[in-house]
Amino acid sequence: MAEHFVFVTGGVMSSLGKGIVTAVTSALLEDMGFSVNVIKLDPYINVDAGTMNPFQHGEVYVTDDGAETDLDLGHYERFLTITMTKANNVTTGKIYYAVIQKERRGDYLGSTVQVIPHITDEIKSRIKAVGEGKDVVVVEIGGTVGDIESLPFLEAIRQMKKEAKTCYIHTTYIPVLESTSGELKTKPTQHSVMKLREIGIQPDIIICRTEKILPPDVKKKISLYCDVDEEAVISDPDIQDIYELPFIFKKQGLHKIISMKLFGTEPIEMFNMKPREPKLEKWQKIMYKIRNSKDIVKIAIVGKYTTQTDSYLSLKEAVKHGGIANEVKTDIFLISSENFENNGESVKVLREYDAVIIAGGFGSRGIEGKINAIRFCRENNIPILGICLGMQLMVVEFSRNVCGLHGAHSTEFNSSTNYPVVDLLEEQKRISNLGGTMRLGAWKVKIKEGTLASRIYGAEEIYERHRHRYEISPKYIPFLTSKGMVFSGFSYIGDFVVPEMAEIPTHTFFLGVQFHPEFKSKPFDPHPIFSYLVAKALETKKNREMFV
Ligand code: GLN
Q1: Does domain 4-286 have CATH number 3.40.50.300?
Q2: pTM score above 0.85
């Protein structure tokens, strides 16, 4: 079991980038030579994030083992070398569910079941479980200190001070008051630390979101009022690229303070000694490529949840990674598919982009708009990638407009269509509970030789993550194939062989994928689909410029 724990709490307000702070802190620890695991504790009562609306909560992130989790797990996977599982995201709902089941089974032998110790013990056991075989566990506590919901989690991490070596990081916000000539205000931080102390936690490190690096006098003030060392007040300034953050934290010595606290020693320069001074080589390579990027491509993401910027978080990151792979800057635009619903003209704006992505999603809003966008890109040879629902609608559009199957649809949106080209598998139709029929997590996909898919992957078999109920109906494959659509990837679900990838070889880049490649892309290991897409976008842009 790990004996070293770093806890990251949040104060003042939400959306300060606590997940990124956690990911970067963990990345520094990895770079110091430690094996690290990360766990996110979410105070909400949902058992998992699967039922949560992206409009409210941002993207639902999916792991290899099929957990529907908080989007912060995406940051952890992108910044670290580890793979997340169901165990890496615990919610209040999950904890209470487990405790109540134990109570019903009689595991508590007649005792009164209480928040302390039963709920807190359950929380601690989850934290310790992810530390199996690891040097350090980094624990991010969702929500803001002072919320009713997070109290049992904070009590659990407070108790751990007596059981292990601990380091408490509190993230806060330093607002600038323009009316007093740009004064940096530390009071919200002081109050949030007071709240934390009220429940018995004294932070070791305070990380402050600010516009700029904090001046020494502000650090001094926070140090005095909040009882932390001056060098343990770390600035988390506004930056252009989140991949700069490991350097900014390293420069301020965050890794040294954590190392001293957990191991009683500073990192050493000598290679391969633990803890070693982080070199951040991987990150240097990325930043070099980002800074070296000269060309810019414009990529449109056509989706439904476009008002919440976090709804397509992994997708936007994956596009950026495709840019890093090509040393090209990517300008990403979220466009609501509802814009394209009725007006035949409006879809023409897509001509201004070098590539278009049709995002996944649920529910009928904006569906016809997505279909119009697909048609426009197909007919105008604009590179287009359809993800999950995006792929399903590519097949619908092709069926309607190329194959003449008028009214073809997915039975998700029209259960009585004459041409159900996207449908539930027979097996799924027998199960009425919707949740039970979702195909989740990593599935093997076999790739057909000589296709765009095989050029992209250079492999015969791949594993990609899924989150959907409907499938391209296998019954239509021969007909659609005869009309020019190539199904280039398949997976096997029981007796069924279902299409996973669809393409049109005569088009510059027309690819639909039933899975979510964005969940497996990392900045230092860009997903080949996004690398290929950005390369195609650049080619399209250059061709267009040649003809102007
Ligand atoms: N709504 C579609 C389905 O359930 C697609 C889901 C998605 O895009 N993730 O099959």
Answers
A1: yes
A2: yes
